Amino acid sequence: PRKERIKDPKNVMRSVDPAALLMLEKAKEKNLLSAYDRFAAQQPQCAFGYEGICCRICFQGPCRIKSEEGPGSKGICGAHGYTIVSRNVARMMAGGASAHSDHGRHIAHALLHAAEGKIADYKVTDVEKLKRVAERVGISTEGKTANELAIEVSQAALEDFGRQTDEPCTWLWSYITEGRKKKFEDCNIAPTSIDRAVVAMMHQTHIGVDADPVNIIFGGLKTSLADYTGMHISTDLSDVLFGTPKPVITEANLGVLKADKVNIVVHGHNPLLSQTVVNVAKEMEAEAKAAGAAGIQLSGICCTGNEVLMRSGVPIATNFASQELAIMTGAVDVMVVDVQCIMPGVRAISECFHTKIVTTMDNSKIPGSYHYAFDEHHAVESAKGIIRLAIEAFKTRKGKTCEIPQIKNKVIAGFSLEALLELFAALNPETPIKVLTDAIEAGEIAGVALFAGCNNLEAPHDNNHLTIAKELAKNNVFLVGTGCSAQALAKAGLLAPEAVEEYAGEGLKSFLKKLADANKDKLADGLPLMFHMGSCVDNSRAHDLCTMMAEQMGVDIPKVPFVATAPEAMSEKAVSIGGGAVAMGIPTHVGTMPPIEGSSLVYGIATQIASDVYGGYFIFETDPVAAATKLTAALDYRTWKLGIHK
Ligand code: MSK
């Protein structure tokens, strides 16, 4: 697939999102550049780097694997291609684990400081969730106030970052099956602490340390499980601070921007500031109106967008690949960004408009942007400052034309695991998860697929997400999603009930109809084709769903009809999430090629040896229709092994 990409630098179909296509047309007219143009300009990309056989770990290099034999077939130190490929990919896993976990650490500190009374702008919002988490991680709730419990829970979470003894991370061990615990112990891939797993991986892949690709990849899986731990901490403690999501009805795509309102777009991943902006914006409507605006319009991009969508119903503006296109509408007054997935390109494009880019985190600045140093002690103050900056920017926009594509779709989202189980409970109050597993056992649905991950312009923007989702729905697969994948479907209208009628196979349709009928009193609008479970870190919610299914079915995860797909993966976090899913025993499709094709041995470890050892494995398939066929086959194989005949 990579060779085709290099031969086709123009990547003719750039997006399947009609709003993005409209903006790309306008960009062309005005000669505005975006990631779509830069992708084409980067072609042909370096084949050595693309295949993972470029080593830059020491600066005798870069070394490239140039031939099959002779001195050019190894790095200067003698590193084989398989060592170079595995070191590179394992370092990606460590990078992803660092990003998710640092986010989790930030949330844990905020909860601890709020509970200790050191910060006033946050508090324990969801006491029931706090109790559930405490019980799950083995902390007694008896006779403790919410703050006392929150202190113990956040301290236990922080211990998972820096433990120096050899017990596995609490958040990992508390949420997985007994079978997985044994497997991780046998393979020595259970992290004892997040920071240690990442440091160990950086050491293991230093020049002249580990040359064994299996050992390196297994070390990478340990960082992936550290990543899982950090994601789970982020999800749990965000729910405690801001509330566990419940179903919300909202909209998605660039049409959610409003020319007559102050448009504030929140972008990145960490809900600490963005949720405060959302909360404070309600109080500042009057200030916006005094400036001549019809009000404040909030919208989101990437996973900060997902966090505030899930808890407050804030509409989605767009997803990763098209973030610059939102600014090209001329309607965005402030884009407030925190960490991860923020293209530095947003700053350059904002120069052509009145838009202000506001960075907020010490570790994530863009030269030339406004920086509001965010600390949780002054969250409300920072949020107010940012909203006032947006109101000022709105004043300078008055009289200028906005070119907002009038394209948006209805979205039903907010399906935390708790919310999903509540839907099931309407049919089976005793054992809600049985509603799902019974439907699989009856052959009504083929299994469950988790859609995760990013956009990668190697594939036409959003095309893989939509094609695979439609194909799987047609084949009666129950769909859950997170991140930019769920946003792709939201923008295209697949998180609206109408999509069920249009795309679901007969079995899935009848299953969703029963569920919708039983929940009519709570969700009169019906149910979506895919259940949006949240941001990237909320893949932990989907993992918990899979674990519950395993426990209900009385098997370990490698036997559960559950698959995952990252149709347009691109980030280190995606590599880490993928590694974790495979270690958990889940067949995991990736629709854009990670840099591993330079070693058939590493490719084999990912696609076959992983399966033999963990029961989960990677499926690399860039054709979305073929990918859907392979995912359906993986589900069918598992249902057949369970003795379920459709
Ligand atoms: S934002 S990691 S592009 S999903 Fe979570 Fe989207 Fe991927 Fe970033």
Structural write-up:
By secondary structure, the chain is of the alpha/beta class. The protein contains 27 helices and 16 strands. It has a 6-stranded parallel β-sheet with strand order 6-5-4-7-8-9. A 6-stranded parallel β-sheet has the order 13-12-11-14-15-16, with helices on both faces. The protein has a two-stranded antiparallel sheet with strand order 1-2. Helix 16 (345-350) links the parallel strand 7 and strand 8 (356-359). The longest helix is centred in the N-terminal third of the chain and has 35 residues, at 81-115. It is globular. The mean pLDDT is 96. The chain binds Broken Fe4S4 cluster. Broken Fe4S4 cluster (MSK) is lined by residues 269, 302-303, 320, 340-341, 453-454, 483-484, 535-536, 571, 573-574. Broken Fe4S4 cluster is lined by residues 269, 302-303, 320, 340-341, 453-454, 483-484, 535-536, 571, 573-574.
What keyword list fits this structure?
single chain; 646 residues; binds Broken Fe4S4 cluster
Strand order, largest beta sheet: 6-5-4-7-8-9
Number of strands: 16
Distance between the termini: 34 Å
Report on the biggest sheet: 6 strands, parallel
Which ligands occur here?
Broken Fe4S4 cluster
Cα Rg: 24 Å
**Helical content class:** 40-55%
Uncertain stretches of 5 or more adjacent residues: none
